[in-house]
Amino acid sequence: MGLSACVSPVAGPGGRYAAPIGDAPVTSNPTPYSAALVCLGQYARANHRNSPRIAVGRISDYTGKEESDGSGRKLTQGASLMAISALAKSGANLVERYDTSVSELELKYANNKLITDAAQPPPGAPTGPNDYRRIMAGQVPGSDYYLVGGITELNFNIRSSGLDAQGGRVTTTGIKAELTGQLFVMNIGLDLRLVDTRTLQVVDVISYQKQIIGRQVGVGVFDVLGGNVYNVSAGEGALEPIQLGVRSVIERAVLEMMSNLYGAPGPEVCLQNGDPLEGRTTGVTGGYIPAYNNLDQNNAQTREDPRRWDHAHDSDAAPAERSRY
């Protein structure tokens, strides 16, 4: 009967069989190096160090490790996207080369005079031929450097340790207890290179690895009381996120490369006079080019606020606006 109140074979008035659980807000996804990337971008802006134009190519998974059930790869296939986000956090001048399918299609349409940039006429207004988009020589900025590489290592169980202890009274009905624990360590490795687009000279190569730890802890109690048998156990396990580990090594590599391109002397640049937070366009969520002059209300810092736009946790929102849908 309890389940029937939560799940129904007939859709309710809202069109759902069941209400989903969970109300965690969307948050930023930083690594230990995200703040340093943001600070590096602020250093470059404060010292008038312009970023070269950078493109990101393929950063593939070369480990070849797949899930045993065939459900997919063990590591993320989005390392290139992580690198783009890391470069954006550092204030890099990015040009798109990873997915140019839409631009290439529109370039094809423009070459056939099928695309216009004129405003759409209001509904019901007479329509006629519009001026077509022209293709101008040199309209696409070229890149100065491009970033490529791959995830090259995934090593399981580099080292592990465990504990299994049991104890209790020697009588048959005496209380008995058990304690178990286990630690295990694995690692991932990354190799990146920065290439001069014009000369194809490799100007920077970085290889990093990061270890990832996991743990399991369990406890159990067995006892006989008043003719009744009681067997209670509890446990807890945790694994450091593997994909976040991939993001961490990528951000560390990008941090070192951009530090070189900006001419930053080292981490001490982020310890001088603090890091201005107001009016930033780069943050731990990435970076953007403002469409309007409203940085006092919309900036990188407001993008990092997990409660922003979330009516369920906004104290100023009306009660009717706090529903999840």
Secondary structure blueprint with pairings:
Elements: H1 34-46, E1 53-61, H2 79-89, E2 93-94, H3 101-111, E3 145-168, E4 176-196, E5 202-225, E6 228-239, H4 242-262, E7 282-283, E8 286-287, H5 300-303
Parallel strand pairs: 1-2, 1-3
Antiparallel strand pairs: 3-4, 4-5, 5-6, 7-8
Helix pairs in contact: 1-4, 2-4
Strand content: 25-35%
- pLDDT < 50 runs, ≥5 residues: 273-278, 320-325
CATH architecture of one domain: 3-Layer(aba) Sandwich
What's the mean pLDDT score?
85
InterPro entries: Curli_assmbl/transp-comp_CsgG, Holdfast_HfaB
Protein name: Holdfast anchoring protein HfaB
Organism: Phenylobacterium montanum
GO cellular component, one term: outer membrane-bounded periplasmic space
Textual characterization of the structure:
It contains five helices and eight strands; from the N terminus they run αβαβαββββαββα. It has 325 residues and is an alpha/beta fold. α1 runs parallel beside α4. The strands form two sheets. Strands 2-1-3-4-5-6 form a six-stranded mixed β-sheet. The protein has a two-stranded antiparallel ribbon with strand order 7-8. It starts with 33 loop residues before the first helix and ends in a 22-residue tail after the last helix.
